[in-house]
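Support reply, case 0932

Customer input (verbatim):
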Amino acid sequence: MPDTLSPGSGGLGKDVLVSRPSKYPEQFRKDAVELVRSSDRPSREVARQLGVNHETLRSWARAADGAETSEADELASGEREELRTLGRKTPAESLNEPLLSPQ
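Our regenerated output:
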């Protein structure tokens, strides 16, 4: 059960979940996720060899996937802004703009 602050404990006045620091270093978690992705072995087997619960390893992989997805969303939102800007320009203005911009 997660740690909580209760009203009688001098806390915040309501139950609040307090996360516990991970007992695994961040670099270990990243390396474990990379190992699962690059290996042809089942994640359960990789977790066993690393001495980690397979559900823990699975949650690390899901979190990494979520982080990568949010990075892709940020790029997509920049592209959406560019499309909105282009949509506001008149056809004559659009003809004067280069088709490809230098990167």
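We compared this against your earlier run and they match. Two observations from our side: Residues 23-81 form a domain with the Arc Repressor Mutant, subunit A fold (CATH 1.10.10). The mean pLDDT is 76. Please reopen the case if you see a mismatch on your end.
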